[in-house]
Design brief:
The complex is a heterodimer. Chain A is an alpha/beta fold. Chain A folds into two domains: 211 residues, Rossmann fold (3-Layer(aba) Sandwich), CATH 3.40.50.300; 84 residues, Alpha-Beta Plaits. Chain A has a six-stranded mixed β-sheet with strand order 6-7-8-3-9-10, with helices on both faces. A four-stranded antiparallel β-sheet of chain A has the order 2-1-4-5, with helices on one face. In chain A, helix 6 links the parallel strand 7 and strand 8. The radius of gyration of chain A is 23 Å and the shape is globular. Chain B is mainly α. Helix content of chain B is 70%, strand content 6%. In chain B, helix 7 packs antiparallel against helix 9 and helix 10 packs parallel to helix 15. Chain B has a four-stranded mixed β-sheet, sandwiched between helices. Classes of the chains: A alpha/beta, B mainly alpha. Chains A and B meet through helix 2 and helix 3 of A and helix 1 and helix 8 of B.
Chain lengths: 309, 398
């Protein structure tokens, strides 16, 4: 499938600390790519390398097949983890200013700033100073700042942090729309359920290198384990004695078991007969894949290493 | 391709500069400080002249007063550009009371003694002495029977012209005054506007706007735009104050004000720009290595020391305008702007030296700009305590 952004073997050291080592992954247009990893895994450094805020010690960042140039980067939009705009400046002025710096003419920048402020429900607050806005509205202005020049690649560092549930919903809808319009969207998040729900593609990074990346459904399908979640009437304890199964959660009537992909789900069902209230048989969730990949828990990811970097 | 990129770079520098001009120039703080500064300068010029350079002396007369004394006093006072009024007192007591009550400056007793209140005034003493001398000569001439026309010939005043021959070792007084005023203004203006750049840089880093900007443009362009924008705002304010001062002096038609030659004015402006650029770039780079304004102040302390050194250099140059140390300070970029401004004002620097020192300073600014760009981009995304400059100048860490 078509790739617009590619990081290949990108490494970066800060003194004795290695922030990225051989980081390789790809981002495709028209899709949301979730970028996950524990704190300090190198997400922010990788994003900064994409934007040219950090010069990598080795490796390449390429855009549409050639090393990314300053002119390419002008078509990127970026929202840093540490939000930052001028507190005393009027909202619309900030967006026009940033839009012009991204190459728009003053007229186009003014038009786009207006359009985004209206679209994000800030039409009434155009002339307000940033520090007169609520925290949530400041976040929206920050997002508008990343979008004002209609970027082909949107890089967002933790866009969901600090948002209330409603704001999270509107952020999700917006990102989906932007990707739907053809842009490539890469965002980092600690909220794995959000990433799993929203993203077609994921990149899992740990200790500076990518441990999993690609189409999330394919990664899940390729996992060597399956999960069987069953709620039964009566005592679920007898399920604890199933061969080849590991209990991962046991909660009242319900139980979640890890079984080999090569196992026999029909045989399992046979043994449970009659008592099943609810049943699910599924590949690992992103969160399970993440834990396995990052913490070395007992799920083998060897079979998906072809997708990983 | 690179040409388009270059043009785009200038465009972005201009956009950043324009933001500084709009946000700072349009702020209430800026307008208030400009108005206050203009009022202050106008007041400083007006007040001394209102309290009187050309003043009116009040002289009391008592006892015997030689004929023609009052007229002679008037003539002598006018000759030195002052007015003089006389009052007669019937008794010495009345006259002395008038002195004590400050109704008169001095009491002339019997045409031969001056009674002052606390301190004598040398100008007034000379005026009175000359007047009495003239009266005395006229009396003697009458006694000797010298005709009036012959007396007039005897009393033809000697013409004494004066000129200044340039500063071999001492500057003439007016030029020296102009030099010190220019240096003082430059010192204040450079510290003030370079200080704006320092706080602006630290604020942008603390607000985290820096990262948003650096994602759009190279650090050196952010730096250049900021320095140019704040410089323009500063220069505008500086110009307004200078125009207000100039207009005030003109309107007062003040003959005593030292005139400022155009070349001195021009060079002062050029050295202001060079000095501002030098210090603001250094301030910006050092400011970027810190995350709080308090730390930034201590980071620039050594540089503030260099500013002070410039001022000491001027004091040294006043006595030794051509000494080797003075020339060295003229070529040393941190001290050049202030030392050279003074030397230009007192005509102590040859033309070629003015140009070469300006070129050396400009070259230093260019080199500094490059280093500062590197420091800036390396430091803006690192937070915490101060970042050692050594780390930032190594290319691998940017």
């Amino acid at each position: 499938m078509f790739v617009v952004l590619e990081l290949r073997d990108v490494s970066k050291r800060y003194g004795d600390v290695s922030a990225l080592s051989g980081c390789t992954f790809q981002v495709r247009p028209g899709r949301l790519t979730g970028f996950v990893g524990p704190n300090g895994a190198g997400k922010t450094t990788a994003m900064r390398a994409i934007l040219g805020l950090v010069t990598q010690d080795a490796g390449t960042v390429s855009w549409r097949g050639h090393p990314v140039s300053a002119a390419d980067r002008r078509r990127f939009g970026y929202m840093p983890e540490e939000r930052g705009l001028y507190p005393k400046m009027r909202v619309v002025d900030q967006l026009v200013f940033l839009g012009r710096l991204s190459g728009l003419s003053s007229a186009a920048a003014a038009r786009e700033a207006d359009r985004w402020l209206d679209a994000l429900g800030l039409g009434e607050r155009k002339a307000s100073r940033l520090d007169d806005l609520s925290h949530g509205n400041q976040q929206r202005v920050q997002l508008a700042a990343a979008l004002v020049h209609a970027p082909e690649l949107l890089v967002l560092d933790e866009p969901f942090s600090g948002l209330d549930p409603l704001a999270m919903d509107s952020m999700s809808a917006l990102l989906t729309d932007i990707a739907g319009a053809g842009a490539a969207v890469l965002f980092s998040s600690h909220q794995l359920d959000v990433v799993e729900h929203l993203c077609e593609d994921v990149v899992v990074i740990n200790a500076g290198h990518v441990v999993l990346s690609g189409d999330l459904d394919k990664i899940r399908d390729a996992a060597t384990d399956r999960y069987l979640e069953v709620t039964v009437t009566g005592d679920p304890d007898r399920l604890l004695h199933l061969t080849d199964a590991t209990v991962v959660a046991h909660d009242g009537d319900g139980i979640r078991l890890r079984v080999p992909r090569t196992g026999d789900p029909v045989g399992l069902l046979d043994r449970l007969r009659g008592d099943v209230v609810r049943l699910a048989y599924e590949p690992p969730t992103l969160s399970e894949l993440f834990r396995a990949a990052v913490a070395g828990e007992a799920v083998s990811v060897s079979e998906v290493s072809g997708v990983a970097g | 391709m690179w040409r388009a990129e270059l043009r785009e770079g200038w465009r972005r520098i201009w956009i950043v500069a324009l933001r500084e001009i709009r946000e700072r120039g349009g702020s209430r703080a800026y307008r208030i400080s400009t108005v206050l500064a203009v009022l202050l300068v106008v007041a400083v010029i007006l007040i001394p002249s209102l309290t009187g350079e050309s003043k009116t002396y009040h002289v009391g007369l008592t006892g015997t007063v030689p004929a023609g004394t009052v007229a002679a006093l008037d003539v002598q006072a006018n000759a030195v550009g002052h007015q003089l009024e006389t009052t007669r007192y019937a008794t010495l007591d009345q006259g002395e009371r008038a002195v004590r009550d400050k109704k008169i400056d001095v009491l002339l007793v019997d045409g031969s003694r001056l009674d002052w209140r606390t301190r004598s005034d040398s100008t007034l003493t000379a005026v009175i002495a000359n007047a009495l001398q003239a009266v005395h000569i006229r009396q003697q001439a009458d006694r000797l029977g010298i005709p009036t026309d012959q007396l007039a010939q005897l009393l033809v005043p000697v013409t004494l012209t004066s000129r200044t021959i340039g500063a071999a070792h001492t500057a003439d007084k007016d030029a020296n005054t102009v030099g010190f005023i220019a240096v003082g203004l430059l010192y204040v203006a450079i510290s003030f506007y370079a200080g704006f750049v320092l706080t602006g840089v630290v604020q942008e880093k603390a607000n985290r706007v820096a990262e948003v900007l650096l994602a759009r443009m190279p650090a050196r362009q952010v730096l250049a735009g900021k320095v140019v924008g704040i410089g323009a705002v500063g220069l505008g304010q500086f110009a307004l104050i200078a125009i207000a001062a100039g207009v005030t002096v003109q309107l007062m038609n003040h003959a005593d004000a030292p005139s400022i030659p155009a070349d001195v004015l021009g060079w002062t402006l050029i050295w202001f720009i060079l000095g501002y650029l030098f210090y603001s770039v250094v301030y910006a780079a050092l400011g970027a290595t810190t995350s709080r304004i308090e730390d930034a102040q201590s980071a620039i302390a050594p540089i503030t020391g260099l500013m002070l050194l410039s001022y000491l250099g001027v004091i040294y140059a006043e006595e030794n305008p051509d000494a080797a140390l003075t020339v060295v300070l003229s070529y040393f970029p941190p001290t050049a702007p202030i030392v050279m401004t003074y030397r230009v004002a007192v005509h102590a620097a040859p033309g070629w030296q003015i140009i070469t020192t300006a070129l050396v300073t400009a070259l230093a600014i260019w080199a500094l700009m490059r280093a500062a760009g590197r420091i800036y981009s390396g430091a803006l995304l690192r937070f915490g305590g101060r970042i050692p400059l050594r780390d930032l100048l190594r290319p691998s860490t940017t």
